[in-house]
Amino acid sequence: MASAAKFLREYKLVVVGGGGVGKSCLTIQLIQAHFVDEYDPTIEGASLKPVLSLSDSRLRGDQFGPRKFFRRKRHHFRASHQMELSIADNFLDSYRKQCNIDDETALLDVLDTAGQEEYSAMREQYMRTGEGFLLVYSITSRQSFEEITVFQQQILRVKDKDSFPMVVVGNKCDLEGEREVTRQEGEALARSFGCKFIETSAKSRLNVEKAFYDIVREIRRYNRELQGYSPGVNGGSSGPGGPSKPIDMDGEEREAGCCSKCVLM
């Protein structure tokens, strides 16, 4: 019955950054607790394929933006009943995972994007629909650190906002001997953006969950400030993308009093 339905808040997270900084490795560690020990550029080997659900068929993998912007990934992973790996075409990899953050259940829809400069013109497509962004650089690459400002400015321009939920992530902190960017520099950059900073290691899984959970917390905080009230236990704010109708697990719109980012279970 609808009165007994449980609502699951969905968060559309986007992982951005230059090529080779470990965006895919961070995402796969979050979803599968697995480290991919070889570089496979996200845009490489793209071929048109439909979205493939590897878990509960009710969790649809095509709910984030145009399907044509997804691409096929060579890596395949087992999926639990709580998450889904969407394998599709072209520019993005979409991963989904259900988790509990601060005693509130959330469905994370994570987009792992191509960092190559030749695809920069396509970034606005996913920036328009993202609710929160992880700005990832490698502590072993000063160039990737300097590129973060470009991503941050483009996000704000596309969103037409002075601020938006973001977290600056310095990845590969296990490679201390190869460090080119100090922690203090990362913290200073995050302060200039007005957002949180964290260093991670996709290899050792250090702070991987915290990075993704922190951006969810930033989205919740942003929504509370935007709406001028605290959402209930279901995170019932309209979100940075604006208000619309809720969806159930079959993708149907509901007239119930909930936000567009909630999934009816």
UniProtKB/TrEMBL annotation:
Biological process terms in GO annotation: signal transduction
Sorted UniProt keywords: GTP-binding, Nucleotide-binding
Transmembrane regions listed in the UniProt entry: none
Pfam families: Ras (PF00071)
Superkingdom of origin: Eukaryota
Gene Ontology terms for molecular function: GTP binding; GTPase activity
Ranges of biased composition (kind: Gly residues): 233-242
GO CC annotation: membrane
InterPro entries: P-loop_NTPase (IPR027417), Small_GTP-bd (IPR005225), Small_GTPase (IPR001806), Small_GTPase_Ras-type (IPR020849)
Region (Disordered) residue spans: 229-252
Keyword GTP-binding: yes
Classification via NCBIfam families: small_GTP
Protein's recorded name: Ras-like protein
Annotated source species: Clonostachys byssicola
